[in-house]
Amino acid sequence: MPQTVKSILDAKGRNVVSVGRDQSLSAIAAILNEKHIGAVVVTNPEGRIAGIFTERDLVRAIAQNGAVVLEQPVSSSMTTDVTRCREDNTNDELMEMMTAGRFRHVPVESDGKLAGIISIGDVVKSRISEIEHEAEQIKAYIAG
Ligand code: AMP
């Protein structure tokens, strides 16, 4: 059975750290540090995905504009063309999305709303457990 976004979320939970578009970059830097995460999803008041902002965007914004950018709203530095996935996507499809788009986070959308997030770490973890499961089956087959 291929692992899906649903099975990954069932195991790790559906909580996503999200912020509004007016949140400052300094406030987001504090959130990323405190929660030990690499990205926040920017949502509008209805819970729809408006953008994504990751540690890489923070580095880019500071390198391009200096530390004054830290008081700017996230809307000025976020990525608005967000690649999303659904619960029925497989971990292989997620790996393809991340490789093609060169990013490490994919928000999950359900009924037009933010419903989870998958990081590259989640995909690697689920792929390893899939491979281990396959190896166990092969060993059992050979032994039996
Ligand atoms: P990351 O590797 O996730 O830190 O992201 C690298 C760059 O891709 C940053 O500019 C992000 O804003 C952007 N990014 C991250 N995730 C996505 C996504 N799912 N769709 C589009 N862009 C993204």
Description:
The structure is a single chain. With 144 residues, the protein is an alpha+beta fold. The chain contains 5 helices and 5 strands; from the N terminus they run H-E-H-E-E-H-H-E-E-H. It has helices at 5-12, 25-35, 55-65, 91-101, 120-143; strands at 18-19, 39-43, 49-54, 105-110, 113-119. The strands form 2 sheets. Strands 1-2-3 form a 3-stranded mixed beta sheet. The chain has a two-stranded antiparallel ribbon with strand order 4-5. The chain is elongated, with a radius of gyration of 18 Å. The structure holds adenosine monophosphate. The site of adenosine monophosphate has 15 residues, from strand 3, helix 3 and strand 4.
